[in-house]
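Bumping my old thread because nobody answered last time. Still need a sequence for this structure:
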């Protein structure tokens, strides 16, 4: 496909390369640090499937819509097929490297965006060396040309904001390092372009102040609640991040003339879902479906699937709700499959994108 092709034609994306955090992790963290256990996966896969969700994520719906199989995590060596792309996202990932371990910081991943890019770069180079051996390798690895025809998807940055809050930073202190986060983000998009990437689909970050785990952890800082019951200061930082991200995308378009870069306003979609849940067919916007106790059904010590010992017996207390399909939040941090599907349906047509082009035309961009 030449980039001068007719903008009305659908793109034929043979592969997706995804970079991100738990919003799009299809098994990376599970492969590295132990599986996300039951009841994760119960609504669709009927067993844990490496996703922090009862079923599919937005990235799964993207793959389905493009006619591709679900993405395997790069870190998952068992049964993976990378012929249609690879997923470098891991739960807890940040753009900026965290200088602490997973255990110390309430679950931030060592696989920051620069590490994900190194993995991609290594994958690109080595996949071709092995593909040339033919046989099984040729069947399970992408063709060289697919790296320039693929869709590069990004959904990362939320954990950079929340990491600050877990270090007791104020919202102003977190705001102050947003430019640095975005400078590092831009570098990675430029590297991917240098490696042949041309079509980019970039999600902004969601309304952090509406997540049960943020509402639960910092009640003293959540005095400024908005009408939807979300903590306004946290959402203001997310919106500030998003404005800066959009500006970074505009700069990238100037610097990378052959790239088609779509900026997707997921924040607006998610906020609309939470603030008008009933209108959209959801009953529970702010409480976790799967959790234990408290105003938000969230307990940082007993998560979804959590057990406690009672009279020497392990008892499941982090139980899922009866019907996750009417809940927005799955486990206090992540969305349910139903919410992910709803979000996907809003963004796939391009009405929340800049430029306003649908997913299947994301190879065309603005240069026509």
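Sorry it took so long. Here it is:
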């Amino acid at each position: 496909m030449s980039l001068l092709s007719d903008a009305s034609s659908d793109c034929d994306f043979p592969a997706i390369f995804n970079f991100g955090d738990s919003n799009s992790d299809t098994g990376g963290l599970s492969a590295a640090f132990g599986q996300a256990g039951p009841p994760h996966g119960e609504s669709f896969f009927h067993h844990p499937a490496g996703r922090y969700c009862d079923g599919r994520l937005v990235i799964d719906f993207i793959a389905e819509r493009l006619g591709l199989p679900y993405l395997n995590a790069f870190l998952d060596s068992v049964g993976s097929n990378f012929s249609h792309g690879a997923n470098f996202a891991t739960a807890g990932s940040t753009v900026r490297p965290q200088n602490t371990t997973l255990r110390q910081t309430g679950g931030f991943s060592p696989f920051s965006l620069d590490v994900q890019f190194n993995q991609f770069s290594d994958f690109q180079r080595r996949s071709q060396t092995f593909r040339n051996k033919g046989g099984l390798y040729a069947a399970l690895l992408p063709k060289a040309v697919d790296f320039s025809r693929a869709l590069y998807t990004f959904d990362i940055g939320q954990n950079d904001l929340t990491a600050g809050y877990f270090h007791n930073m104020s919202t102003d202190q977190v705001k102050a390092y947003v430019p640095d986060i975005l400078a590092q983000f831009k570098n990675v998009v430029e590297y991917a372009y240098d490696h042949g990437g041309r079509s980019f689909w970039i999600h902004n970050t969601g309304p952090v102040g509406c997540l049960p785990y943020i509402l639960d952890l910092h009640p003293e800082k959540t005095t400024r609640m908005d009408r939807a019951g979300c903590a306004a200061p946290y959402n203001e930082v997310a919106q500030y991040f998003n404005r800066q991200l959009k500006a970074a995308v505009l700069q990238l378009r100037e610097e990378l003339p052959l790239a088609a870069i779509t900026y997707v306003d997921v924040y607006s979609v998610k906020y609309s879902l939470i603030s008008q849940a009933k209108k959209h067919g959801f009953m529970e916007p702010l409480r976790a479906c799967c959790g234990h106790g408290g105003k938000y059904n969230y307990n940082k010590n007993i998560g979804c699937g959590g057990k406690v010992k009672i009279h020497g017996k392990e008892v499941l207390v982090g139980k899922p709700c009866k019907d996750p399909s009417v809940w927005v939040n799955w486990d206090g941090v992540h969305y349910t499959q139903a919410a992910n599907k709803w979000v996907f349906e809003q963004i796939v047509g391009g009405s929340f994108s800049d430029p306003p082009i649908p997913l299947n035309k994301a190879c065309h961009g603005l240069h026509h």
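The chain has twelve helices and ten strands. Let me know if any region looks off to you.
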